[in-house]
Amino acid sequence: MTATAHAPVPHYRLAVADVIKISVWHNKRLSETVPVRPDGRISMPLIGSVLVAGHTASGVARTIKTKLAYYVRDPQVTVIVTHVVQDSYRDRIRVTGAVEHPASLRYEPGMTVLDAILDAGGVNTFAAANDTEIHRVVGHSERVIHVRLGNILSEGRLGTNYRLRPGDIITVPERLL
User: Fold this and answer.
1) CA 37 from chain center: how many Å?
2) What CATH code is assigned to 19-85?
3) Per the CB 3.0–4.6 Å rule, which of 14, 78, 101, 162 could disulfide with 121?
């Protein structure tokens, strides 16, 4: 079952450009509504910069409470997500390079490399299919996963028909002529 625009998302993790409302009970000066900056952080009085991207609202509240405890006795902190970035861009798979129709595809659970390549119209005649790569961001670094797409397409060998994750970029290079 896929989530609809109105369905609850359990354990939502904050992302860049989301907006959160931070309430510190009995302390209006520390209560504010802030966007998540491009570096995944927010700025707050007294405690400065706090990394929030990738964390839940309740986890961010605990972090802020811990940092504020140095300045405020027993702070009670609530974090509410007030605006969520459009998932339509975050939850995409991009297929680039020597394919018939380079595409940005909506991620679907269980989607594999073969699914994405077929959605992009397959490889073109210039493709170096066995040199295909998945570029995946893991934490703060990029991981490159090698895919033997030629073996998948021509021989049915599915050993590198990996399951995809939202944000993956599949690159099919052109072969040298």
Assistant:
1) 15
2) 3.30.1950.10
3) 101
